[in-house]
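> example.struct
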């Protein structure tokens, strides 16, 4: 669907966020909501995602050309890989992205920081697929006192999950890396794996494939983090201006998850190949397979889980109390699910 062209620069503040590529639009499309049918000019959709296997629906949709086919002559895609959802939030709020695959906490942050005006959640993508992994021999939170642990970034989904779990077990942390256990935001996620392997940290809370790699390096899973891991969001301005394009994006998302379910081996190969085009190196197939096993790829955004994530962040002082009413716009998703013969979902 697309080939890597030149590295995209989102701006000085996002220089390390990732790399980008553009996809050419196909001259033919099976989309019935083609913007060109109304004489509109083709639209370039700026889509963000993370270089994680938890974002496999985006990777598969890119590799298999689902976005291109759904958009048809209505538009093209400019995809950008990020290393953390907090960076995606910055890009969304600064007007650099139109749509993004993000974790629940970055989505909540974008909603709160914009007073509910920046984004809408239009689909789920994945649940599960993240774990707290520690050195062998550590079997409780109490044993992590005085030790350093990695997370992708302060306030991201895995960061909140780790801090909340520690708090529930009597281990305090601070946003500045102090407390009983020392949380170190570490980018990219692969750096946390290397630090774990070399003994610089006692463990961390990481998404797949990095939690799997830490286990392969001798780690033990203390907690498999439940709930939603990946959501598809769009900016409200883009949704208002291009509702048909948003419907096409959601259609491609539904197709990607259907493909993952019906063609798991090919989906794993697709995700690995697409990820390698951004990171420069493919993962071992066994790592990808193990990552897929711990993830449930679902279009259901799991609204109850999102509320839990928000409540946990608030309890940690990382988020002010937030009203999530109105954060979902699931009309396009339920239309796509109905067309595919699948059950509809609620927000």
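> example.seq
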């Amino acid at each position: 669907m697309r080939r890597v062209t030149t590295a995209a620069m989102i701006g000085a503040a996002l220089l390390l966020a990732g790399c980008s590529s553009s996809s050419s639009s196909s001259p033919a499309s099976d989309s019935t909501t083609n913007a060109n049918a109304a004489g509109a000019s083709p639209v370039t959709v700026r889509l963000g995602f993370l270089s994680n296997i938890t974002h496999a629906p985006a990777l598969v949709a890119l590799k298999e050309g689902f976005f291109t086919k759904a958009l048809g002559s209505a538009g093209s895609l400019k995809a950008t890989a990020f290393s953390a959802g907090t960076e995606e939030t910055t890009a969304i709020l600064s007007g650099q992205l139109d749509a993004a695959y993000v974790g629940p906490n970055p989505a909540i942050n974008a909603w709160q920081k914009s007073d509910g005006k920046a984004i809408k959640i239009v689909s789920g993508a994945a649940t599960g697929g993240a774990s707290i992994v520690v050195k062998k021999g550590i079997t409780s939170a109490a044993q992590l006192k005085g030790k350093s642990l990695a997370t992708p970034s302060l306030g991201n989904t895995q960061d909140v999950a780790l801090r909340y779990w520690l708090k529930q077990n009597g281990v305090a942390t601070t946003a500045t890396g102090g407390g009983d256990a020392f949380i170190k935001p570490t980018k990219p996620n692969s750096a946390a794996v290397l630090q774990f392997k070399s003994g610089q940290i006692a463990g961390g809370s990481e998404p797949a494939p990095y939690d799997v790699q830490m286990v392969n390096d001798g780690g033990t899973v203390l907690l498999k983090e439940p709930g939603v891991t990946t959501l598809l969001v769009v900016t409200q301005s883009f949704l208002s201006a291009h509702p048909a394009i948003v419907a096409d994006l959601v259609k491609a998302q539904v197709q990607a998850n259907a493909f993952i379910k019906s063609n798991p081996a090919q989906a794993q190969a697709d995700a690995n190949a697409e990820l390698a085009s951004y990171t420069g190196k493919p993962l071992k197939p066994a790592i990808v397979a193990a990552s897929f096993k711990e993830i449930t790829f679902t279009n259901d955004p799991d609204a109850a889980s999102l509320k839990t994530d928000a409540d946990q962040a608030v309890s940690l002082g990382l988020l002010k109390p937030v009203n999530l009413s109105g954060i979902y716009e699931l009309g396009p998703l339920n239309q796509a699910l109905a067309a595919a013969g699948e059950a509809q979902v609620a927000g």
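> remarks
Residues 1-38 have pLDDT under 50 and may be disordered.
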